[in-house]
Amino acid sequence: MRAPITTTFHKDATIETHPTTALFPLLDEEELQSLADDIREHGLDNPVVLDTTGRILDGKNRLRACEIAGTQPTYTTYEGADTDRYVLSANRQRRNVTKGQLAMITAKARSLSEHEPRSPGERSVRSLSEQAGVSVGRIGQASMVLRHAPDLAEAVINGTMGLNEAYSVAQKNKAQAESSEAQLARLRSEDPQLADRVAEGELTIQGAWAERKARQEEDLRQRRVATNLLCEILPALAQIRGSRTFAQYDPELAPPGRAVTREVIEHATTALAEVAAAWKDRDLP
Q1: Helices 163-190 and 136-148, packing angle to 10 deg
Q2: pLDDT per residue over 51-75, tens digit each?
Q3: Does 175 reside within a domain?
Q4: Which of 62, 143, 150, 211 has the greatest number of beta carbons closer than 10 A?
Q5: Is this model's pTM higher than 0.70 or not?
Q6: Domain boundary among 51, 77, 96
Q7: Range of the domain at 175
Q8: Cα separations (Å) of 110 from 44, 116, 156, 233?
Q9: Is 75 helix (H, G, I), strand (E, B) or coil?
């Protein structure tokens, strides 16, 4: 890593912070006051490090402590190309940051800079792991949290939740997401229209399966009713074929609303033809 070129000068304290540097938590009030007292008594040992655009790379706590102490800070400019690696390397020994926090900061810094053009070496997890002083496995866990439980990343960085706990939640979320994807794929094969409604956010996957189950139950009910009706009517009609039943029909004895007329016979004939066609299409006995 190329060493920074030091330039001592005065600058306004409200300067911008580099995105990776901004991920690191600030000192608490007691620690900050202690640092300010030390600076007031002994001066600023290490200058605030800026990048070539003037953003803070290292020393945001020192800058705040200088303000409290009423001491004018000094600055140095880092002219290397890989500012992320510099920030991670500079902060790896911080006492108020755990390995879990460092892993999450490293993973998030990598995700923030993915759009920037970098060489494969600069971009690799192993390279960042070496600079941050945390294992590739821990960075992998942090990356899992970013993908499957991103709302917990800030809690890990702030130290209010451990990386292991957040990783456990991320694993469960991943398993649930994969299960949902499998369910959606199955739903698409069985009912593409319902799957489309899930994809469009109109239905949840659970709601879609519930609707499909309701449709299947209604379809079964209708098939049961139709089957019972046909089994009641057609065998009875077949039994009177060739008998004198038709000749003995007396309109005056017909139940109210159930008289047999020529129109009813025509409809019945059409219905029988439709039944025969359906049985042929379905290859039923």
Answers
A1: 50
A2: 999 999 999 999 999 999 999 999 9
A3: yes
A4: 62
A5: no
A6: 96
A7: 97-179
A8: 31, 10, 16, 74
A9: strand
